[in-house]
Amino acid sequence: xxxxxxxxxxxxxxxxxxxxxxxxxxxxxxxxxxxxxxxxxxxxxxxxxxxxxxxxxxxxxxxxxxxxxxxxxxxxxxxxxxxxxxxxxxxxxxxxxxxxxxxxxxxxxxxxxxxxxxxxxxxxxxxxxxxxxxxxxxxxxxxxxxxxxxxxxxxxxxxxxxxxxxxxxxxxxxxxxxxxxxxxxxxxxxxxxxxxxxxxxxxxxxxxxxxxxxxxxxxxxxxxxxxxxxxxxxxxxxxxxxxxxxxxxxxxxxxxxxxxxxxxxxxxxxxxxxxxxxxxxxxxx
Length: 285
Hints:
The chain is of the alpha/beta class. The chain has two domains: about 5-85 and about 210-285, HAD superfamily/HAD-like (Rossmann fold, 3-Layer(aba) Sandwich); about 85-210, Hypothetical Protein, Haloacid Dehalogenase-like Hydrolase, Chain: A, domain 2. Helix content is about 40%, strand content about 20%. It has helices at about 10-15, 25-35, 45-55, 85-100, 130-145, 150-160, 175-190, 215-225, 240-245, 260, 275-285; strands spanning about 5-10, 40, 65, 70-75, 80, 105, 110-115, 145-150, 165-170, 195-200, 205-210, 230-235, 250, 265. The strands form three sheets. A six-stranded mixed beta sheet has the order 8-7-6-9-11-10, with helices on one face. It has a five-stranded parallel beta sheet with strand order 2-1-12-13-14. Strands 3-4-5 form a three-stranded antiparallel beta sheet, with helices on both faces. Helix 2 (about 25-35) packs parallel to helix 11 (about 275-285) and helix 4 (about 85-100) runs antiparallel to helix 7. It is globular.
């Protein structure tokens, strides 16, 4: 089987821990194009942050953002597929999250809106003397322009005229039990409208029912007129699982969660050791 499309996650996959794409990864992606193999990204990030990364790789086909809820041709900015959460459901979810005093982010088209102050994770400060740190801060600072902190009332006003594609709930100050209470309440009330997945013991994500990176890839296969078994999907985390199980060749990063590795066809190197490049070089030999 000759592969015709490579789809890569961003965080923990195409991005290294410093949040940029290595030269080795970029060089291998260029080789794909020379062999007429498509490359694109599928990410949980909002569209503008996803498109910024995609443009660095020279992507010239649609990209999948917000975990499959939005597919856009970045060469024309044409929206090819969109599925947002109903406004009234989003409002009720925000009220429930606020009631349980949870930190959450609301993913809009071009912005991610937080209800609490944003802080850099400790991992961003490791190896502070390494030159990569400074490049990392530069990349993150550009992304943070699209990360906005607002109070709950303002967020509720904002979503009256803006599509909501996803909620991410993450708070290390809460217990698993506290998360489960809120998650179960939302699931029980809105199971016809949402899918909920646990990110880890500190949080969960809410996306429109019926969308995922896998459904996004199905759309791209129809759009590009290529078979699903000619697709390679590369990822490392919970929102990559369905994609990895769905495509012709599911690839787990070396830094992936164990349950992702167990469901992959093959495991490549880590995101800090150019794992995307290494799997590309392997398939184009």
